[in-house]
Amino acid sequence: MSSKDILKQALKLKPDERFIVVEGILKSLDEPDSSLESIWVEEAEKRLKAYREGKTKGIPLEKVFK
Q1: Contact 37, 30 (CB under 8 A)
Q2: With contact defined as beta carbons under 8 Å apart, do 57 and 46 qualify?
Q3: Where exactly are the structural domains of the chain?
Q4: Predicted TM-score (pTM) above 0.70
């Protein structure tokens, strides 16, 4: 079944049933991807190490939001 077919079927549902479908789809998009999570943790640790070793400098918060 194609996404267009699914949409056609979903639009036939009652509003409260459509809400349940939409809510379920949106929740599925918010689930963290564990492989991406581990990549970001590794990157954050590398950046912190570089900062602590003086290989990189921090940027003041005020400048970041300017």
Answers
A1: no
A2: no
A3: 1-31, 33-66
A4: no
